[in-house]
Amino acid sequence: MDYKAALKEINEKMNLEFSILHLSEDEVYLLASPDDFKNICLALHKLLHAPVASFFAQDARKEKGAFKIYCSFMSAKYKKWFFVVTEIPQDNPKFDSLAKEIYSASLFEREIKEMFGIEPIGNPDLRRLRLHDEIWPNDVYPLRKDFKVPELNNVSGVYCFNKVEGEGIFEIPVGPVHAGIIGPGHFRFSSVGEPIINLEIRLGFTHRGIEKFFEGKNAGDALRICECVSGDASFAHSLSYAMAIEKISGIKVLDDTRLMRAVFLELERMYNHINDIGGMAVDVGFSFPAAFASIVKENILQLNEKITGSRYLRNINCIGGITMAWDKDKTQILRDSLKKIYKDFDEIKKILLSSVSFMDRADGTGILKKKTAEDMGITGLAGRASGIAVDLRKDFPGIYGEVNFNLIKQATGDCLGRLFMRISEFEDSIKLIRQFLDKLETHRSDAPPHKSTGLTVEDRRVRDPLISGIRPQAAAQSNSDIKEGFALGYVESWRGPVLYWVKLDKAGAIERCKIVDASFLNWQGLSFCVLGDIIPDFPLCNKSFDLSYSGNDL
Amino acid sequence: MTEITLSILQVVIIMAIAPLVSGVITKIKNNLRFRSGQSIFQPYRNLKKLFLKEEVISKHVSWIFMVTPFIVLASSVAASLVVPVFIVLTKTQQLGDLLLLVFLFSLGRFFLALAALDTASAFAGMGSSREMFISAFTEAVAILSIFAICLNLGTTNLAAVNLYTIRLPTIIAAISLFMVILAETSRIPIDNPETHLELTMIHEAMVLEYSGRSLALIELASYIKQVVFFSLIGTILMPAFLSNGLLRNFTVFSAYLAKLFALCVLVSFIEVHLAKMRLFRTVDFFSFSFVLALVAIILAALGV
Fold it and tell me: What domains are there in chain A, each with its CATH number?
């Protein structure tokens, strides 16, 4: 069935009115009246069996005298992203909450409430996520266009944690300052003895107002901000953003560039996965493989630096291309290094999987059931470990469609399942990079030499805007091609989907940029998976997800 | 030299080398993990740093919190008097026997757990609860395996150790005792001495509220406890090179150091090559050592 037929069915059978507002190659925008908004979302949710992928508001009061809200669903079947859009009058900013029917909408609705002051009627939980009541006054909505920074000193509100009461129940507060070099997050455990009855995670301590910071920025400049959203997924974030801008402006990206981008995306996946595999070993006190894993991670980071000049793959993307040239030497360096990395990795894998003491800790710990994961809208690696077969590399393949790529999933949903996911994805990444390199070489031989505006590694070091304050050339050049419009960029980062919805105004400046990192929804998965497990197993569960604080807090 | 001076000398030597043993274990572990690691003298520097630091004491604690570091240290020092380390001293070592050793350490642990509860910190409470859970097993197994050794010795007094010949039950009991020692010295697979990850700690959680001088005393006490246990194993399994009454030459002393070093290497290997057990799985670990101790007793009673 075509997606149009499906939409028609919703239109006719369920008697819901909407018009198609905008259509692009992989996005469909349905404009609904505020009254029908909820029902259309529910119908789409039912039709697509998909959680809410992104749900956000936009301040369009200047042009339309109303706020706009967008609720987005991903459909692998139709290869489309569906957006339900409605306009909410500014004098009565309210809409019907989806949270009771679609749980994955709940967090997004809280976000809309705190950032825009638009009230989701019927959402039982309207506590603020990032603007902590202890310092932020009420009725301050940062993402409204008329926002002014308030006095932050004289407020002392209270955040209400969920309470579990009864005999023998202890509350254990952990964080936001931890005994390690990790991000700040507050974890409130309620336990009876060791088993955990409830875990509430409070985040937002690294809220930097990134979405606000994007507003008014030149589309090319903002690329460097994306890399700071979540440092360990710099490349995925900048790629997702660049993709959105390229879609808006209709910039065609060369196949070579797409291949190189895919190579970097996989390199990012590799260094993070091996880091987490080592991290899981650290958290159960298994120090030998942990030390080994840190060596492999360092090798990959050094490889990154050798090829791109940046250990964390920053400053590579620009709108419509990448800022560096590719040559035969780099292919050779990659091939050689991958061989060695694979050998070391295989050794670590053997040590871990043959250790009874390690397997005993990981097996059956922190089970996230498939049903829970689906309801919460758990995405990416954690979702696949629980049996949700969604991977943007498979569902919207792009360049991945030209190589041999199989989706990997696990059924168990426990820490071991997530470990297996990481192990197989690491091995897969090596295979993928090799195939991309083969493609790159054949492209080279039959295509005219690539006209590269790229800079050498040394040049790029000098030109790194974070060091020298000079903007990368390539990004600046393409500014004239930027057009007005809006689009969604999406990339499967190592954690899961990274979504950038960007709206540009006539001058090519950003009007609204909505970022969804996989961490945002997955943090809830963590708080559900530890239930019934004992407190000393929490660090292992936490590491098996390894979610981003800054990617969530924005 | 009189026996009293020699006893005091023994305590001083144990106190002096105790941090070194910890430093050596850390160094070996790091080298096994391809790391250069900190100097083996780092524990001394840490102690010095802690002794010089200001101490922060919660307003809400009682006298128990204040006296605990002294009691813990005193119990460890007293324990170091009881074990023949490299000299057999009939007088002081007859003051107590192996059972006293177990109870001396229990005393220290009891006060540590109390002091942790005294602070009313969530982590400290968790730590005491875990420590008590584990000590319920370790004490039983320790007494059983010591009993097996005593059956072989013919007395509960370790001063008789240089007169006996090692037999199979003693070796089995020593293995069981060694497993207990891993737990008592907060080592993997029971506890992880390296982590300060709040949620998994046992021993470190109990001492979380201590700082400055008090923390230094507690750290020193746990170093001493470790050496006393290592010496005990060394004495039981390798009674040779124990000097009878007088410190004749350095052979005795260097043999003792060699024994300690061998144990350090063993412990380091175990720590690097095992993951920490799930908390409730430690029961299996102790069941195994309990069975070993039981087998040792039966064999000893049968006269094998």
Answer: 3-121 (3.30.460.80), 210-553 (1.10.645.10)
